[in-house]
Amino acid sequence: MNGQYDVVVLGGGAAGMTAAIWARRQGASVLLIEYNDMLGKKILSTGNGRCNLSNRRISASSYRSDSGGEDFFSLAFSKVSVEETLDFFESLGILTIEEQQRIYPRTMRAADVREALALALSLEGVEVCYGTKVRQVRREDGVYRLLLPRGGEILAKRLILATGSPASAVSGSTDDGAYYAAMLGHTLRPFLPALVPLRFAEKNLKELAGVRCHDTKVSLWIDGAPAGRSRGELQFTAETLSGIVIFQLSRYAALAAQEKKTCYCLLDLVPEKTEEELFLHWSRRIDAAKGTMTLQQAAAGSLHGGVLSYIARTAGLPLDRPLTRKDVGVLRTLAAGIKAFRVDLDGPKGKKDAQICAGGVCLSEVDAATMESKLNPGLFFAGELLDIDGKCGGYNLQWAWTSGRIAGEAAGRGDFHD
Q1: Does one domain contain both 210 and 269?
Q2: Does the predicted model carry a pTM greater than 0.85?
Q3: Which of 10, 34, 380, 387 could hold 407 in an S-S bridge, CB 3.0 to 4.6 Å?
Q4: Are 363 and 265 in the same domain?
């Protein structure tokens, strides 16, 4: 395969497809190269197959980076907002609905979003090459040379790297983009799993596998200092803490694990009640029962029975013995355990179990207004390859749409047709 194009986009995911569409709309000839045998494979798994397109709460504070600040995000979203993104999708035939500020396609089908983007590429006249791995990228005489495995070569006046990260086993994701960026002189933060379950160190916790705690406050502590807080549904698996409430904190735990720091979570399993309120609630029930009610019975409606039993057993509390007013210490110990249930962590699950990765190309080397490299004219970045990761809830797809459009429009502009 050989050829020369105004713009070549490497990576046919959410960001890459968007970038290719907008580059073509500027009048450029565009080639989109995808390593997998289909475009937008990762889109199909987003939002549990429903595709959480975006979120009404999008702001600069929704994103994290270890190489740039909120000014980068603010500038990007001032150029391509949530509303502009929804207008774009409506132009592709995708109507949307909202659930608690989260935005989905009206059909609740991620496949419809992927197919709408693929159709737009075809209608716009973007050339697509599947199952192709670029061996090397060079910049010579102002042109980007993409070397292919069997001796082919593609030339690009502008190059957009939108290859994503090595997160998610189902999408065939790789870290090829990091290799290309480094080859062109860019600095990268190491990819770490983010939006990922966290492994617990206490193996006996596996007995809680399958338990869901529907409203839990979680605080993350690293080397004895608070590192983040979140609230939502918590899930126990055979080896991890999971659920969105954990995902929101996981990138910090992953960084701590890489730096060999100690890390644990404190779980407030009944956040709507204070420790004193729980104690008084159980005390009144025990008083009314006049010495016939056990701890298990008194606290049964406060939280999941399995969690209650685990906390009581590990604290040495009697679950089945009838209690009286004299058992104040038992009630206070249980209340304290429920409000600050400590779970020591043993790092995150791996990148292939993560929805996204933290890390990537350092933002200090990229112009937020265009997504163009500050080191290599004509080189652009989009999506997860950049050192940006957002919270769970449509934030990362919105970054793909925003950065993809900015990069595509900027790369597609210029005097290509002398």
Answers
A1: yes
A2: yes
A3: 380
A4: no
